[in-house]
Write a structure and sequence with these properties.
The protein has about 250 residues and is of the alpha+beta class. It contains 5 helices and 14 strands.
Length: about 250
């Protein structure tokens, strides 16, 4: 699976940008989508207009960590893995028995977007299993990305020459679009358009970037670690009903 988000809807962390990187534009002339299609001939590409693109394929997938794709009410979602507490989450979100993992993620996001009772970190923390997902709401222009606490699903992200965000389960695909400006997506973390990268495992702690260095000694993106000493400031504002989208202040 692959997603490329224009920097206007998903600003990549500055620490991902390597000073030595000679990356290209992943979106220009469909460069990275075409490369993905050459690696996965049976792939499907979904154009998100000026916001970017999704690409999806069942080719070469791990049968224990299957890929799923769904669109519900202009919410696009790519999911890979397996959720262990499916029955509980279906009950929690009022879904029918036929709902699968990707539908659960979409409904969890929609509940969050519509000012549900749970904060974003709890919504992701409640998902138990081996997973990674990429979601984009075309109406609100919000991206929502997360990976499980153990990094069971291969998941990588990076930034291209224009600052666009690239996310995929194939490191070589990300490297093609980002050169040295890429890294594994942090375990136990989620990323949103306005809130940036946060840990749902340790929601009250800040994250700090640690430069990655390759075998030649060059900086190659960054990994992000929970800073045990730095606590996030809390506004103390309760989550109440509002017409405003949740992402605008999270």
């Amino acid at each position: 699976m692959l997603a490329v988000f224009d920097k206007s809807v998903a600003k990549s962390p500055e620490a991902l940008q390597s000073p030595e990187s000679g990356s290209v534009s992943a979106l220009k002339d469909g460069f990275l989508a075409q490369h993905f299609g050459s690696v996965h001939p049976s792939s499907v590409t979904v154009n998100l207009g000026s916001s970017g693109l999704f690409a999806y394929s069942n080719d070469k997938q791990n049968p224990l960590l299957p890929r799923l794709f769904a669109v519900v009410d202009d919410i696009f979602c790519l999911f890979q893995g397996h959720i262990e507490n499916v029955a509980l989450l279906k009950q929690q979100y009022g879904l029918n028995k036929t709902a699968n993992e990707v539908i659960i993620v979409i409904e969890a996001y929609r509940t969050l977007r519509d000012r549900g009772p749970y904060p974003a970190d709890q919504v992701v923390r409640d998902i138990q299993g081996k997973f990674a997902f990429i979601l984009y709401d075309t109406t609100s222009k919000v991206s929502f990305v997360a990976a499980d606490v153990d990094g069971n699903v291969p998941f990588f992200w990076g930034t291209d020459s224009e600052g666009n965000l690239v996310i995929a389960d194939d490191a070589e695909v990300v490297k093609k679009g980002c050169e040295k400006s890429f890294a594994p997506f942090p375990k136990g973390c989620f990323f949103t358009s306005s809130g940036g990268l946060r840990s749902y495992e340790h929601p009250h702690n800040e994250l700090k970037a640690v430069p990655r260095v390759d075998s030649s000694g060059q900086v190659c993106g960054a990994t992000f670690k929970v800073d045990a000493e730095a606590k996030k400031e809390s506004s103390g504002m309760p989550r109440v009903g509002s017409a405003a989208n949740w992402s605008s202040d999270y």
